[in-house]
Amino acid sequence: MILAVATGADSRQTAGQTLSATNICQSGQTGCTVLAQTLVGPNIEVSNVQCAVLCSAAGWFSSGSSVLGFDSGVVLGTGRVSDIVGPNDPSNTSTDNYGAGDPLLDALVPGGEPCPGNETRTCDAAVLEFDFRYVQGCQGSNVASFQYVFASDEYSEYVLVDNPLNYVDVFGFFLNGQNIAVVPGTSSTPVGVYTINCGYWTDQCLQYRDWTYRDCPPYGGANCNLFRNNYFFFDPSEATCDFYHVTGFNGPCPNPTPLLTKMDGLTIPLVATGNVDPTGINHIKLAIADVGNQNVDSNVFIKEGSFQCIEPLGACCDRATATCGDGVARESCSGDWLPGLTCDRFNPPCRKQRMLVLLDRTGSMNTVRERTQHTRCFDALERAKQDVEEFFAANPLGEVAVWTFRRPGPTAHTAGFVDRDTAIAALNSPAVVLCSNFTPLAESMCAAVDALVAGLPNAYPTELVLAVSSDGVENDSDGECFGPGSVAGTECGQYDAGSWQQLVCDKVLGHSVVMARYWGAFSMVTAGGGSDTETGGTAGAGVSDFAFFQNLAESSGGRFVFLDDTAGPPSGACCNVIDRCQNGFTEGACVSIGGGYLGDGSDCSLVQCAPKAVIVPTLSGWGAIVLSLSTVVAGTIVLRRRRIPSA
Q1: Which residues contact 607 (CB under 8 A, 6 or more apart)?
Q2: Do the beta carbons of residue 195 and residue 236 sit within 8 Å?
């Protein structure tokens, strides 16, 4: 038998009534019993109710529809439940209840430092537990339900990557000993600040101040489709999106009107499932606690009367056909199923993915590579065919467009986005074989992003892949992305305003994922400038194309691959100054960038650098391509994306 959270409303509303809350301080143990009775529906008998909570940290809430998606119920918190009442403000909401932790919650956050004054990882726990049985048993499908929302003032500054579980608050619903408060679509991933969010703010985000930067809210993060932001709101007095009264952000404000609660972020109404005994005694334990310290509060809201025998319906995604239906029972779904949610909540989305292959066919691509004795032009075309094969292996129903570029601009070789056979046929066409003329790189990349977005205007950025293969040296663009080369800057947001590099960043980030293959000699890695073989002049000094492609790919959530022309001496793996492992370095080249050489023939797939950075999980949906790029091939440097926590 299954216990499941009821379906309920999928709320995305903002503003409206403010929450109100009443604690149990005037009720004593009777209050705990009333809390339990508030949660259950008809024909459920509650007994053996126990509370382990400071009275100010448990109670009832009402007027919650516009904030939570349901009106009333029970709230447990790590501070005072009265502090859920809005509006939000810049300060962190934090109360130290000087309370103990909970062993079941400790098990969800292993490792790390204990709370000050405690020997356990958790502290300030608020716990409500009770036995229950179904007086008349469960009817029909023998499925029961309840519904909840998690909210926290730890969003989004505590969404860290260096040690995500060290200080992030934790909660759990332990049904007969098993935690059922898990991320929809997973079997054991606990719901919390680190597992459901839309990214975290770093110094880089603040410098860029652009809502479209993928590593920053509202685009980055885990399961962003299940999160509602209350961290930023529109300030009419400044006519801008307010980040604690810091002005100058670009783009639309994620929250035109704040939710009327002090919590900086919260989940949509979620559904949990678990096994129950339909005729015997069951036990439920609802618990939330601080982790590592007593700072900054979190709360969990449980809908009144939602603990009852109702079969949950949900969204069903058939990945084989990329079709999805709402309101489907679990037993009727042969694909992925999200209880209580709708099709727009799948991550990755239950839709086709698209990739646009953008091949550099300019004069400099005729350079003969010492490593293969082929031109870059030839090798890049063969690599593009592999990329298409691997994309369709991971996305059988995906679609690909094939473009090339040289003066006077980009050329489409497919009629829009097509199937595998048509894409491969386009790459085998004589029209894509030859390389000549100048390089309208910026113009072509921006036009390609426009084509991706126009084809699927409501797509998530992770559904749209721009696979660009080039040796750089922009010298011939026109249109909206035309501009001089940037003299300064090492990443998007730091390039010179109006430079073609920054204009491309602005176009790409937040709209597509970039897979970049950069062709050249190692001497091209460290600096801009040098000769321009197409114009016969000198390329402007400044940002190197290597650095530009690498940062653009990683910032968009994609992958960067450098393909070295030179055969050179024996090579191996190099741990660079931020301990990112890179294949294909000679010992001298590794030392020249301040790295640590791991030996001739060493391989990043077999060795690890010191863990100063944390690898972010691969974007799902194009895993086969990622696996291919992670495979060591001769003369290839593979750079895996990592996020580096801000100081």
Answers
A1: 573, 581, 598
A2: no
Write the pLDDT tens digit of every residue in 578-605.
556 777 777 777 876 677 888 776 777 6
pLDDT reported for residue 20: 86
Closest CA to 338 of 286, 267, 273: 273
pLDDT tens column, 501-551: 999 999 998 888 899 999 987 666 554 554 555 555 555 557 888 889 988
Mean pLDDT is lowest, of 105-109, 120-124, 190-194, 197-201, for 197-201
Where in the sequence is the domain holding 81, given as residue range(s)? 2-199+260-310
Residue 646 included in any domain: no
DSSP code, position 296: S
| Reported confidence tier of residue 135, pLDDT bands at 50, 70, 90 | confident
Task: Tell me how far apart the alpha carbons of residues 326 and 219 are, in angstroms, rounded to a whole number.
Answer: 25
Q: What length is written for the chain? A: 647
Assigned domain for 581 exists:
no
Domains identified in the chain, total number: 3
Pairwise CA distance, residues 479 & 37, whole Å:
66
Instruction: Report the CATH number that the domain containing residue 471 is assigned in CATH.
Output: 3.40.50.410
Burial (Cβ within 10 Å: 0-12, 13-18, ≥19) of residue 228: buried
pLDDT at 141: 63
Last residue of a domain, one of 512, 541, 567: 567
Cα–Cα distance for residue pair 37/39, rounded to 1 Å: 5
- End-to-end C-alpha distance for the chain, whole angstroms: 49
Residue ending a domain, among 567, 602, 628, is 567
Task: Share the mean pLDDT of the chain.
Answer: 78
DSSP per residue, 541-593: SSS-HHHHHHHHHHHHT-EEEEEE----S--EEEE-TT--EEEEE-HHHHHHT
Neighbour-count burial for 474-503, b at 16+ CB within 10 Å, e otherwise: bbbbeeebbbebbeebebbbbbbeebbbbb
Does residue 326 sit in the same domain as residue 305?
A: no
User: Which tokens in the block code for residue 473?
Assistant: 């040296």
CB-CB contact of 44 with 133 (8 Å): yes
* Cα dihedral across residues 535, 536, 541, 542: positive or negative: positive
Task: Summarize pLDDT for 66-105 with one digit per residue, the tens.
Answer: 889 999 999 999 999 988 888 776 567 778 777 899 999 9
C-alpha–C-alpha distance, residues 305 and 37, integer Å: 8
Asked if 429 contacts 413 with a C-beta cutoff of 8 angstroms, the reply is yes
**Is residue 272 a part of any domain in this protein?**
yes
